[in-house]
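Marked as duplicate of an earlier ticket. Keeping the data here for the record.
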Amino acid sequence: MTTRTILFDSPFLLGFEHTRALIERAAKAAADSYPPYNVEQTAEQRFCITLAVAGFSPDQLSVTVENNQLVVSGKRDGDGRADAAYLHRGIAARGFMRSFVLADGMEVEGAVLEHGLLHIDVVRLEPERNVRRIAIRSAD
């Protein structure tokens, strides 16, 4: 049995529990390969996440964002063809949940289902420039 050392276990890094949790969540999400997806940069600060969700209708899909986590899920009530005798069944008919961790400032603009592909548009908003002048006092 091997022990994996986590960088964030260092006693010199205090207050990074949130970052460690994000990394663990991302690693767990990457372990599942269904449904397949692409992440494409479409412009300087714009991205498109495309998931292959053939056979799902818009009412069977859900896209939510909570605490910088984008969650896409699909639920099936069954494929409607329970009596079919398949010779080969290569199209998955199961539900799924796939999550993506979004950096601060990332916003989901919308989602479109087209030809069995779910396209989710994500944009990185420009952070507000917050310049604060600090008064300098004299020690006299």
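See parent ticket for discussion. The first helix runs from residue 17 to 31.
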